[in-house]
């Protein structure tokens, strides 16, 4: 089969890779209908981690089950499925508490490289969720979005308790941030402030339900949030970047007793304990437990209640994976969807 | 009146100070029945902050109201009152959300020096809570404890959702940590692990309801907590020290999806963003919103349901304030209560 691998910073190739096979009896193999490129991959693309050997790329997927291991019960060959980027047993105490991405038996699905024609998904029963039937083609991008960017943005809105009467601010105008706006809207937040300085992303944020746009960053951005919230700061802040500046901006934009959910993998960030103490904000980071929300999200997509697919503004074939990353790196694209 | 002031590290004196007077119409003056010395004062006592002039000491108090400003409605002269170390209006949005110590109009009561015969308490209606009647003398220490150490420990147990089915670990065996144990017990936690290596404090922790004692610290302490919790870590960890080591120990002792409440004022602490991300623990720091819990705590004390007073193991007269700090600094005393 064909699959994308990263060989060095900026060097993503689509090569012939071996077809995946069932390894454990809890595995499933899916034929990937659509896959995408993640903002978090850009850290590798830009060289934050030194790739020493060609490494499979991609952890977002949706597709049709072609094979299952002998112990798989809930998923059948022929099902169309969505799934999280972390495989989870969905039965351990961590999963039961709703933190499936940190399951006691979590495996990173991305290690198998979802940007390929076929993908092996471990712990299929606890990881995959089948759609009610075979989806219309136009639903595939939204179902793909559920596997990470939608699920992650949604988890952010849930964690910060976005809802009626709440002011939610979103730091970061990538796909996750934009879909946190959609999630906050869907959950009834009163005011949703998107922090963005890019016209096309501002437009998308407004379409997804943002009530206010703040283009300022850093201390100026914080001051603007305070101004918009009677001096208090937002109740709820979703951080979807992962830098020192964005984390600081998020924490300082939040009122005491408010919530910050940081969704961006933190890179080179150090949080001063004393500032965090006196900020008195509830801070939760971590890979989003997408699996917790998948059944609900798939239903909302199936019912066409939400349409997250417009974050995909570039949809080349798999063979052009590298160009997809380049466009995201240069911020010419919000999110690249690859067709197999 | 006589009152304690710190003149330099290690130099606490009891001097003649001017009697406080009503400044704002929302003030009250109380005659302090009992006051105490806080672990957080030890940072000053040890020289973390350079005192450049004699500074009044103490922020924990209970006593009888002797004078009120013209706008005070809920508190009357003659009332016996407890109060938080932060004055709060108890009406702003932050107070309404239960974070009174970060009230939009918060004032640090300790700035007036509670280790004195009389104390001015700003925003009396929003800060003080009257007892149902004049308490028996033996209740005074417990009511005093409510003003900070009990209220703070209690807030920790609430924030980490200590309750039935939960394993709670407490890092720090000072008065706040010990009273977090009492609070966790009172709130029905299934298992309460006190991290302490001092025999007398271990004994007190067990009396307050600890089910397990862990004497190990750092990575060894974390390993022991994991061992006691089936490899998962505790659901709920209360941190009551404020150092890099204790914060790290607290975060690493918590399972993904669990809660950490850090109650110790963080000194020189830097939290690495990436570790915090992958820990995926809910982290809340800050001065405890004691006022939120005061009505409940006062009632529990009044009904003799809880008895936090045994944290006071040294009870000299006010004149011996310095000896009280010395004993706490040398860990000869858990907590010093001063009699006026």
- Residue runs with pLDDT of under 50 for 5 or more positions of chain A: none
What is the number of helices of chain A? 12
The major β-sheet of chain A equals: 7 strands, mixed
Q: Quaternary status of these chains?
A: homodimer
What is the average per-residue confidence, as pLDDT of chain A, rounded to a whole number? 96
State the helical fraction of chain A: 25-40%
The 3D shape of chain A can be described as globular
Overall SS class of chain A:
alpha/beta
Distance between the termini of chain A: 10 Å
Rg calculated over all Cα atoms of chain A? 19 Å
Q: Which pair has the most extensive contact? A: A-B, 41 and 41 residues
Fraction of residues in β-strands of chain A = 25-35%
Total beta strand runs of chain A: 19
Characterization of this structure:
The structure is a homodimer. Chain A is of the alpha/beta class. The first copy, chain A, has helices at about 40-45, 95, 125, 140-145, 150-160, 175-185, 200-210, 220-230, 245-250, 275-280, 290-300, 320-330; strands at about 1-10, 10-15, 30-35, 55, 60-70, 80-85, 85, 105-110, 120, 130, 165-170, 190-195, 210-215, 235-240, 255-260, 270, 280-285, 310-315, 335-340. In chain A, β14 (about 235-240), α9 (about 245-250) and β15 form a beta-alpha-beta unit. In chain A, α5 crosses α6. In chain A, about 60% of the residues are buried. The interface of A and B includes residues 98, 101 and 104 of A. β16 (about 270) of chain A pairs antiparallel with β16 (about 270) of chain B.
